[in-house]
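Folded chain entry
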Amino acid sequence: MSADPNRLERRGAQRFEVHLPVAVHFEGRTVPGFTQDLSGRGIFFYAETALPQGAIVELTFTMPSEITLAENMPVRCRGRVLRAATSLAGQRNGIAAQFASYEYLPANEPIVQFVRVSAAGAAGGTSGQIPR
């Protein structure tokens, strides 16, 4: 990220810094993660596994009211990994994905059931299960 105040912002959608738990579904597996920032078009998140560029993922989380312009709503988003920063051993991987589609889920459907980890504690573990 550039600190240049004259840099032109080229993103097509407003980005929100939000730290939310996310369930990452791909290739028949589900791993926990947490968001760093989010927009109506994409997401940057950390996960406990590396994902290759171009991988198709399904992300389940609660979309915040800043984006829905209503109330917080559980969603399932499908998208493609644009880039991934592979981490050193024992740390999480940073992943940027572009949304191809999303669907709102019933309010009573559980999204994720694990302990959220902050970015500062990214080397720590999570516990619990993630329903599919």
Summary: Strands lie at 16-17, 21-26, 29-38, 42-47, 56-63, 73-85, 93-104, 113-114, 128-129. The first strand starts at residue 16 and ends at 17. Residues 38 and 89 are 26 Å apart (CA to CA).
